[in-house]
Specification:
Radius of gyration: 23 Å
Shape: elongated
CATH superfamily of the largest domain: Periplasmic binding protein-like II
Number of strands: 10
CATH topology of the largest domain: D-Maltodextrin-Binding Protein, domain 2
Distance between the termini: 72 Å
CATH class of the largest domain: Alpha Beta
Order of helices and strands: HEHEHEHEEEHHEHEHEEHH
Number of helices: 10
Largest sheet: 5 strands, mixed
Structural class: alpha/beta
Strand content: 15-25%
């Protein structure tokens, strides 16, 4: 067996190994390591979920990245590696299912309600949701593709039908929008800093900040946001990813989410 043949065989082995390594780039990581992309409104909850899930599943490591659901959905379509996507709506994960980026169906795992946040000292003197239509009120909102914007629009439209609200309430509200942020966490932060007079956010985000006060929203007009999760086809451990989503929607996950103000998925 000559040296030239051995050199060629060795090179072939290296090329095969490199090719195999390159093929794993679409996965999130090693089996047992879960990369979770999640809506910004889930950040505080998932810190506790991560701890609880790892304690119940030895050898599993959960890493969480948060942003607006719409931004994360786009990243996944563009090839960002992750195992699970947890969205503040069901439409963004459904897009991934329809586009062939997610396996199975969307699993609803939580709901949320809306509230209005104002700075702790409430300089604009906002007392009711109707005050969001007053001249000069600076409303902090989110981008058009962010789920909170869809829910906030529904709330504003519902309020316009309530007694004591002008029919052009949605137009007045829209005229007062002073900025559009990347996600709901940014809305809370900007209002807390006094860079806006009010913003519509999830109840759980308001509870997570000691620097804002809340304005009650009428139950009849409020909107229930449904959160949905999917397992991504690029997952390096789809079995564990499926188990995580099932755990989150099950009793143990619901206990953690419920303590932070999330509602069960329900009908």
């Amino acid at each position: 067996m000559n040296g030239r043949w051995l050199m060629g065989a060795s090179l072939g082995v290296v090329l095969v190994a490199c090719s195999a390594g390159g093929g794993s780039s679409s996965g999130a990581g090693r089996p047992g390591d879960l990369e979770v992309y999640a809506a910004a409104s889930l950040k505080r909850a998932l810190e506790q979920v991560e701890t609880a899930y790892e304690a119940a599943n030895a050898g599993v490591t959960v890493s969480v990245s948060t942003d607006s659901s719409a931004a994360l959905e786009t990243k996944i379509e563009q090839g960002a590696p992750a195992d699970v996507f947890l969205s503040a709506d069901t439409s963004n994960p459904q897009k991934l299912v329809d586009g062939g980026f997610a396996a199975g169906t969307v699993t609803p795992f939580a709901r949320n309600s809306l509230t209005i946040v104002v700075p702790s000292d409430n300089p604009a003197g906002i007392q009711t949701p109707a005050d969001l239509a007053k001249d000069g009120v600076r409303i902090v909102a989110a981008g058009d593709a962010v789920p909170i914007t869809t829910y906030a629009t529904q709330l504003v439209d519902n309020l316009a039908s309530e007694s004591g609200y002008p029919r052009d309430f949605p137009a007045r509200y829209a005229a007062n929008v002073a900025s559009k942020e990347d996600n709901v966490s940014a809305i809370v932060t900007k209002v807390a800093l006094g860079e806006g007079d009010a913003g519509i956010v999830y109840v759980t985000d308001a509870k997570g900040s000691s620097d804002v006060a809340t304005i009650e929203v009428p139950d009849a007009a409020n909107v229930r946001a449904t959160y949905g999760g999917v397992v991504l086809k690029g997952s390096s451990d789809p079995e564990q990813a499926s188990a995580f989503v099932a755990w989150l929607a099950g009793r143990q996950g619901q206990d953690v989410l419920g303590e932070l103000g999330f509602l069960p998925p329900g009908p």
